[in-house]
Structure formats: C-alpha cells, structure tokens
Amino acid sequence: MSSRSTIQHVVPLEEWNAAPDRPYAPASLAKDGFVHCSPDAETTLAVINAFHRTAPRPLLTLVLAEDRLASRLEWEAAAPVPPPGVPESTLFPHVFGPLDRDAVERVLEVQWDEQGQATGLRDVS
Fold first, then answer.
1. Among 83, 66, 61, CA closest to 10
2. How far apart are the first and last CA of the chain?
3. Which parts of the chain have pLDDT scores under 70?
4. Dihedral angle at the C-alpha atoms of 17, 28, 46, 66, nearest 10 degrees?
5. Does a structural domain hold residue 1?
6. What pLDDT is recorded for position 3?
7. pTM for the complete prediction?
8. Whole-angstrom Cα distance, residue 87 to residue 41?
9. Is residue 122 part of a domain?
10. Residue 87 and residue 68: Cα distance in Å, rounded?
11. CATH code for position 99
C-alpha cells in the first residue's frame, strides 16, 4: 500500500536493551499477533500521548526500514479508532513477527514537557 520507506515503533530503553543479540519481540506480538508501529513522527507522538505516557522512561522510538524487515508488514486501519489528533483515514503499519535489529535505521528518544506530554523526538543514534 505504501510508498513510505520507514515506520516507527515505541519501546522503553530497558526493554530494547534486554536482549541485544536477538530480534526484538514486544509483548504485543504475543498478545495481538503483531508489533504496533506508526507511519511517521507526528502519529508516533499522538500514539505515545494516548497509550504510553506512563511507560518506563527513557522511552525510545525505533525508525525501521520497511525493506529490511524479515516479517510480513501490513497497513491496517486503527481499531476501534486512531488516537486523538490522528485522522481516521490513517493506516498503521503492523509487523507480523519480531523486529530485526538490522532494520533499525535510527533510534530517537521521546522528549517530554512539564505536563508529561510527549513533544518531540531527539536523535540518539
């Protein structure tokens, strides 16, 4: 569906570093059957503010090259609805398997304001 070349996935630093020699498989892979990702930074920030505000920090965003993922990637509508501020027509990338570490192009750290809102992403790699 997509002409995009990268997607983004949110992960706490401790979780990302837990098994650096293995592909990353978050709990959502076992629970939902896929890894939740976002199509761009703006959508990623909306997802963080809707679902990850209480996640352990530092919180990272992995920028993944679609063409380096070994697992199947599908673009699907949010169910039941996308997070606040994201158009209903937005499709979300879902990866149906672990994330290959060599697919990570960049690692970004989530920046927070005083009210605990995610406001930006800072390059750390």
1. 61
2. 29
3. 1-4, 125
4. 70
5. no
6. 44
7. 0.93
8. 14
9. no
10. 28
11. 3.20.170.20
Token reading at 105: 């192009």
Whether 125 maps to a domain, the answer reads no
Give the position of tokens 């570490």.
101
> What is the sign, positive or negative, of the torsion defined by CA atoms of 68, 72, 75, 79?
negative
How many domains does the chain fold into?
1
Residue listed under structure tokens 């990353």: 24
Give the integer Cα–Cα distance in Å for 16 and 24.
7
In angstroms, rounded to a whole number, what is the distance separating the alpha carbons of residues 24 and 11? 10
C-beta of residue 110 within 8 angstroms of C-beta of residue 63: no
- Taking CA atoms, 23 is separated from 65, 66, 107, in Å, by 14, 15, 15
Per-position b or e across 25-63, b if 16+ CB within 10 A of its CB: ebeebeeeebbbbbbeeebbbbbbbeebeeeeeebbbbb
HSE at residue 68, side-chain half, CA atoms within 13 A, is 14
Q: What is the dihedral of CA 66, 54, 17, 99, to 10 degrees?
A: -20
Distance of alpha carbon 32 from its chain centroid, rounded?
A: 15
Query: In this predicted structure, what is the pLDDT of residue 4?
Result: 60
